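Q: Convert this sequence to structure tokens.
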Amino acid sequence: MDRLAMALAGVERVRHTHAAAGVDTTLPAAVAALVRRGMEAGHAADSFSALVAALMGTPAGA
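A:
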């Protein structure tokens, strides 16, 4: 999963699979929210490691 946009698709699939199986979705839902936060900060085309910058409030390209 090179890009956050791809990562979100994978995490959402895991979340839906958990829900369908009756498994707690807390962790995949939290990861999905974090990935969305990174994407909203302008890191959709960046790797998963860009989440560190998103958590620190660093804008994309900075």
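Residues 4-21 form the longest helix (18 residues).
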